[in-house]
Design brief:
This protein is an alpha/beta fold. Helix content is 36%, strand content 21%. The chain folds into 2 domains: 214 residues, Rossmann fold, CATH 3.40.50.2300; 167 residues, 3-Layer(aba) Sandwich (Rossmann fold), CATH 3.40.50. The chain contains 13 helices and 18 strands.
Length: 428
């Protein structure tokens, strides 16, 4: 069986020895005497973005189950199971720092987080300071979704590894499609008012100026993150502006509510998005989104390969409920890279693991990614897809049981999606 507990306090973080849930064999293959390899998941597990935290948790549980099914992480003295422990940040910086302190107090030196660039930034700073003070208890930070470019540029850290493409990489991929939309003449930019949302709007203006200077930006707006309950006033301005398309980096409830309001006012333009392919958006838009919602990601369920299809089918078997249909290839690659790096380091000491992780190369389900040592930015292909009806050519799978899925229209290989960096890595 598997379960998702409600928010737990720091000393009662839910421990999941993945593999026990559905695979049975993992517990038999791993000697009971071996202490687990523990990773602290610091994420929004309550509040307006709790659904995004739970979606991450499912992905990481599934990835750990796979590691444990093959016997766990191989270290001297015996194999060890991989465990993820939940620490609720409530989507707040101070709560995330408190969760980090709790995880360290609990003896955990591996941390995973991603659903906020602002939180990732404060975690990087805190971990850098902790590692200077406590060299015998240094902490490693794995980031699966916080995509503010600064995190692997000015704020790059030897202890931080990003497994998602950063915002500028994603924007360049979207622009590869948008620039060819010859009928498009006006765009409205809207985003969440924090580091990531600001970076998206800034890069959108820059890329539009370079690639489509003929397109007019008819609106440029940032809104409070996670606090807007009704986007109708925002969408009324978008519609009144005459915009033919909206470009947004919004995610979670802020994106769902935005597109819901757009449907209610009858906005007929396109949505160029970073995260429009799941967590309620296709269900909310329905037929109105067909051919109009474009998203960029490292992977889509309808990625055209037999290996990709088998990967997705196995996820659906593990998590059959439509509301749980949110799988990320990059999180699977992250866990595989971690297991690989610990085994190559033959140690759990953070510096030793980091030395292997910064040169990790992972091939899984036909998808390959390589960590760039210079800035700890993962390099992998990016895909752009458009919403369509399930059953249409290229749309075998829908999203969340909505009857609508995403058809891949462009694949940008890792070499093309790679971008220059300004990181000046300080190594121990």
């Amino acid at each position: 069986m598997y379960f998702f507990a409600p928010q737990l306090l720091k000393r009662t973080a839910l421990t999941l020895i993945a593999g026990v849930f559905s695979l049975g064999v993992a517990a038999q293959q791993t000697p009971a005497a071996q202490a687990p390899v523990r990773v602290a998941l610091i994420e929004s597990l309550s509040g307006p973005f709790a659904n995004t935290g739970e979606a991450v948790f499912r992905n990481l549980v599934w990835a750990a189950e796979r590691v444990n099914a093959r016997g766990g992480i191989k270290l001297s003295g015996g194999n060890r199971p991989l465990v993820f422990e939940r620490y609720d940040s409530k989507g707040q910086n101070e709560e995330a720092l408190s969760a980090l302190r709790s995880a360290i107090d609990d003896g955990i030196t591996l941390v995973a987080q991603g659903n906020s660039s602002a939180i990732a930034a404060v975690l990087i700073d805190a971990i850098n300071k902790h590692n200077e003070r406590e060299p015998a208890k240094r902490v490693l930070f794995m980031n699966y979704s916080a995509v503010d470019p600064v995190l692997t540029n000015e704020k790059c850290s030897y202890w931080h590894f990003r497994f998602d493409a950063h915002a500028d990489m994603r924007m360049a991929a979207l622009m590869d499609v948008l620039k060819d939309d010859k009928a498009l003449r006006s765009v409205y930019l809207i985003g969440q008012d924090y580091s990531f949302g600001q970076a998206v709007v800034r890069e959108a203006r820059k890329q539009l100026g370079l690639q489509r200077p003929d397109i007019q930006v008819v609106g440029d707006e940032l809104h409070p993150m996670g606090r807007v309950k009704d986007f109708l006033p925002y969408v009324a301005k978008i519609k009144a502006s005459g915009a033919q398309a909206v470009l947004t980096g919004n995610w979670g409830n802020d994106l769902t509510l935005l597109v819901k309001a757009a449907r209610e006012v009858g906005f007929e333009g396109k949505f160029y998005t970073f995260y429009g392919n799941a967590l309620g958006v296709p269900t909310v838009l329905g037929e109105a989104g067909v051919g109009k919602v474009i998203a960029v990601a490292d992977w889509f369920p309808n990625a055209p390969s037999a290996q990709s299809e088998a990967f997705y089918q196995s996820f659906l078997q593990r998590f059959p409920k439509p509301q749980d249909d949110y799988v990320h290839m990059r999180m699977q690659l992250m866990v595989e890279a971690l297991a690989q790096s610990i085994e190559k380091a033959a140690s759990l000491e953070s510096a030793a693991v980091a030395a292997q992780l910064e040169k990790a190369s992972v091939l899984f389900a036909g998808h390959k990614g390589v960590m760039r040592a210079a800035d700890h930015q993962f390099q992998q292909p990016l895909l752009v897809a458009v919403m369509d009806k399930q059953g249409a050519p290229g749309v075998k799978f829908d999203v969340e049981g909505s009857g609508y899925g995403f058809r891949v229209i462009k694949t940008i290989d890792a070499a093309r999606s790679e971008q220059a960096h300004s990181c000046k890595m300080i190594r121990p």
